[in-house]
Known about the structure:
162 residues; alpha+beta; 2 domains; 5-stranded antiparallel sheet; 4-stranded antiparallel sheet; 2 helices; 11 strands; globular
Amino acid sequence: MKRKINEILAIFDFIVMPLIALTIACTGFFAYGQAVPGPTLPPPVSKILSGYQANFSPIGSTTILISTTTSAPIYLKGFQLTGIVIPAAFTGTSITFLASLDGVTYNVLKNTYGATTVSYAVAPNEFLAVLPVDFAGVNYLKIVSSASEVAQRTLNFSTRGL
């Protein structure tokens, strides 16, 4: 009986009390007899769980200029890269990536499975699915072609929330 009571108290302490505290924090609370302004409804779960964006998969594009190999920077905004559309006349046969935390200093992106450079073989006019785990924690990203592009190339990409 005592064990059951302790289990109930533990549930109360770890689940109910934080929910009460969250509700109070989101709806305003009373201090010295006066209400402190606050929203009347709690924010959606997506706002509470900062960075959780699993149901939102934005797409974007970046450009590799003529006679260059490196794309313009992509600001991932807390998302992970999931796929890249390789254009029909793409010159390179593989791509690698440069990653940055601040958008200023870029380093070669390596994976956590042996610290090898993240690289994919590509062919023109294909959708390349990439491993999102390789892009976890990357704020800014540049795509690097293995060959200088003979014309400006636009690469479309898809992402997913963390």
